[in-house]
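Minutes, project check-in
Item: structure for the 145-residue chain
Input as provided by the requester:
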Amino acid sequence: MKFKRMITPVVLLSCMVSSVHAENTISNALKEVFITNLKASEQEDIDAVMATLHTQSPSYQQTQQVAQTLSQNFDLKFELLSFKYIGRDGEYAVARAKQLAVKQKPWSKSGYQDNETDMIHVFRQENGRWKIWSSAILTMKTLNQ
């Protein structure tokens, strides 16, 4: 009599728990990078902002210029409204985040509109740490001022 190998419920459950744990670990790491980026942006610490970006990102230089322009012209406050890990494919991981960005001083230079932005962020590891690789705006809703 031949016995077929069967996956027992205990083995299956163990694999599922291990997979969920790995996904939660990645999700938490990505969220931490994103929150660090928002806090650094709010504090107008360009070096700290850039430390959250992958140095080989195609938008690295552009992001640095935008961060400098924003910090020179506006006093902004950022709030993370939601963060959802979507998944990982090879060396990239993807998450969706909604954030609020508002001017702290109504008398600061005009030209900036308070907004709620829904974005997709792609992350890639650099030297063993997750960094923001690229971002794409899904929607940007201007808020009444």
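Outcome recorded: Residues 75 and 105 are 6 Å apart (CA to CA).
No further action items on this chain.
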